[in-house]
């Protein structure tokens, strides 16, 4: 066996014996700082020369003199690069390389062939078996080192690429995992959003209280039917606008919780009267809409409306309360004349409003006359608002006469409207609109201020301080919390003595606001403002309430005066009113006197004062001035 030579200080070893393995110095504990080069050659001189040069370049070197030994060293995991001679006994370099490349643990070690052969075929064979490079002998050591460094750099680059790939794969796995988690969370959010969207859509299309379709849903359904009507002209449908009568009373007396339960029961009862093809919707409050999509005619719609009303007339049992509900229903038949759903609803609402005027608890079919009337009412409302600004209104004065002496006692202030289109609008037409819209409050104050100012002027100009002005006070004015302050302000502005003002209030306004009326009347009495109950006997016939209020005058309605001398005369009612007023110390005024017979009869019954066309119609300011100018010293108006 050949002698082993171990150079521990130079970090390399080389072996001459074929059976001797290359051994490293304390290989288990020593961590080489540089690359490990395996040199394989059966020529000891070549082996020694290459090993010495390579070691001097800072590499660790291990030498092997045959192929079998080279394979064992390589398979031990020691070599980073192999310099392999092609010609060797027993196993040539090509065969060694083939086995290296066939083994997984050594497959990636780069092999540089060292050969005295320089034929193209030899080089092709070297590369075919997996060689990384080929150096022909005699070789230059510098070339060998350069090629070694190139291959090691390639290996290092591959390792870095491999490491980067591993790191990238790890990042991809981590990112994929995160993406999967994010995607899972996103899917959960999408699911919750879809559920939320469904909830919002339901809230947008359905009433939360009754679970019925709402206005939006109903309007879409109605628009679809209108488009269908354009294609199928024979198709008929109808809309029912249902509004509960005096439902507010339930909320005010029993609370909104009971009211909500009643609304739910109303919805269920209406549903029981409808067909599967019909649509019931709640528009809010106590308003319901019914769409009858398939009809044979308007008679069928009326039949269903009556069926609903009959169902609603049955008592409602809610929290031990027995309640009774009625409804006013407007019906409109869908025809080709309608292009917009809003117009169908408008006409159904108009018909419902007419049903309420007709006495409530009934249904009314829409006709064009209703639309014309509604349009006129809307125009009058708009014009009335402008009339207050444009000063188109005027106060007229109807004289109030003593039936015994014929003396002029005062005037009733009546508002008149000269419309800019040239016609005179009847108070019976615009006063209800003013009441409904609330315009009666500023209108009433304007009349009071104008009348007080004018009487104050007449009193000073003609020295007729005994005259009084009667001004109507509407129910809405009566409920204003600052009414007394407004009256005080008007009296101060116009410099009219409060004793010259008489306020006329309907008995229904008093009865409906009995508690506030008592307090208000006390304040008016303190100011010596007189009070008159207007249209007495036509409202609640509140005879039992008269003793509670400091009323100065009862005014007999013209409807009673008009019956005097006619068939079915009910003068006993007038007699009862006069007797009651006398017992309570009140003055009696009769309005609407148009004939001497009526005047004489009322005077015999004991009526004190009167007004009507027999004496004078309502007069303009100029016409009253003319009377005063022509009768400067006369305090009477000839009533004969």
Description:
The protein is α/β, with parallel strands linked by helices and 640 residues long. The chain folds into three domains: 5-161, Rossmann fold, CATH 3.40.50.2300; 215-366, Reverse transcriptase/Diguanylate cyclase domain (Alpha-Beta Plaits, 2-Layer Sandwich), CATH 3.30.70; 378-624, TIM Barrel, CATH 3.20.20. It contains 21 helices and 23 strands. An eight-stranded mixed β-barrel has the order 15-16-18-19-20-21-22-23, surrounded by five helices. Helix 10 links the parallel strand 13 (327-334) and strand 14 (363-365). Helix 13 packs parallel to helix 15.
Give a brief outline of the structure:
By secondary structure, the chain is α/β, with parallel strands linked by helices.
Q: Uncertain runs with pLDDT below 50, 5 residues or more? A: 1-32, 632-640
**What's the shape?**
rod-shaped
Question: Could you give the count of β-strands?
Answer: 23
Instruction: Give the N-terminus to C-terminus distance in angstroms.
Output: 172 Å
Q: Please, how many domains?
A: 3
Q: What percent of residues are in strands?
A: 15-25%
Q: What is the CA-atom radius of gyration, in angstroms?
A: 57 Å
């Amino acid at each position: 066996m050949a002698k082993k030579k171990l150079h521990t200080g130079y970090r390399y070893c080389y072996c001459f014996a074929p059976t001797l393995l290359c051994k490293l110095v304390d290989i288990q504990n020593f961590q080489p700082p540089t690359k490990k080069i395996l040199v394989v050659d059966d020529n000891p001189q070549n082996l020694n020369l290459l090993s010495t040069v390579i070691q001097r370049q800072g590499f660790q070197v291990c030498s092997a003199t045959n192929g079998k030994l080279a394979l064992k060293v390589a398979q031990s995991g020691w070599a980073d690069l192999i310099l392999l001679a092609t010609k060797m006994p027993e196993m040539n370099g090509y065969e060694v390389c083939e086995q290296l490349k066939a083994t997984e643990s050594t497959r990636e070690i780069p092999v540089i062939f060292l050969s005295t052969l320089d034929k193209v075929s030899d080089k092709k064979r070297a590369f075919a078996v997996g060689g990384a490079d080929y150096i022909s002998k005699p070789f230059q050591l510098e070339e060998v080192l350069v090629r070694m460094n190139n291959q090691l750099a390639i290996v290092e680059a591959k390792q870095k690429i491999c490491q980067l790939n591993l790191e990238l794969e790890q990042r991809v796995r981590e990112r994929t995992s995160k993406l999967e988690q994010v995607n899972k969370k996103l899917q959960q959010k999408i699911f919750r959003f879809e559920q939320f969207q469904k909830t919002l859509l339901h809230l947008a299309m359905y009433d939360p209280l009754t679970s019925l379709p709402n206005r939006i849903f109903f309007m879409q359904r109605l628009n679809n039917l209108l488009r269908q009507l354009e294609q199928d002209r024979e198709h008929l449908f109808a809309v029912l606008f249902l509004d509960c009568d005096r439902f507010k009373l339930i909320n005010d007396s029993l609370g909104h919780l009971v009211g909500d339960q009643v609304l739910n029961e109303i919805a269920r009862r209406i549903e029981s009267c409808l067909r599967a093809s019909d649509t019931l919707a709640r528009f809010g409050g106590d308003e319901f809409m019914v769409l009858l999509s398939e009809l044979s005619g308007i008679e069928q719609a009326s039949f269903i409306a009556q069926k609903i009303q009959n169902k609603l007339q049955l008592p409602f049992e809610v929290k031990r309360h027995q309640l009774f509900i009625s409804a006013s229903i407007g019906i409109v038949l869908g025809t080709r004349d309608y292009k917009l759903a809003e117009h169908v609803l408008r006409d159904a609402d108009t018909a419902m409003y007419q049903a309420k005027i007709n006495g409530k608890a009934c249904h009314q079919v829409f006709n064009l006359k209703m639309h014309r009337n509604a349009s006129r009412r809307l125009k009058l409302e708009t014009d009335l608002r402008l009339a207050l600004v444009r000063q188109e209104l005027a106060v007229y004065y109807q004289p109030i006469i003593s039936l015994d002496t014929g003396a002029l006692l005062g005037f009733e202030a009546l508002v008149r409207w000269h419309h800019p289109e040239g016609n005179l609008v009847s108070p019976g037409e615009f006063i209800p609109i003013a009441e409904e819209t609330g315009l009666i409050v500023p209108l009433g104050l304007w009349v009071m201020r104008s009348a007080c100012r004018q009487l104050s002027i007449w009193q000073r100009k003609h020295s007729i301080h005994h005259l009084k002005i009667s001004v109507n006070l509407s129910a809405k004015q009566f409920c204003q919390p600052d009414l007394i302050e407004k009256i005080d302000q008007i009296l101060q502005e116009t410099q009219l003595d409060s004793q010259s003002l008489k306020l006329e209030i309907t008995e229904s306004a008093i009865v409906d606001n009995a508690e506030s009326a008592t307090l208000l009347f006390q304040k008016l009495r303190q100011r010596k403002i007189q009070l008159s109950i207007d249209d007495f006997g036509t409202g609640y016939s509140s005879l039992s309430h008269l003793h509670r209020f400091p009323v100065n005058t009862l005014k007999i309605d013209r409807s009673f005066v008009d019956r005097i001398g006619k068939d079915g005369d009910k003068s006993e009612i007038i007699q009862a009113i006069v007797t009651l007023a006398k017992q309570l110390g009140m003055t009696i005024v009769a309005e609407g006197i148009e004939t001497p017979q009526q005047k004489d009869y009322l005077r015999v019954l004991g009526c004190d004062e009167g007004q009507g066309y027999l004496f004078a119609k309502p007069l303009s300011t100029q016409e009253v001035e003319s009377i005063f100018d022509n009768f400067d010293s006369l305090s009477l108006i000839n009533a004969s």
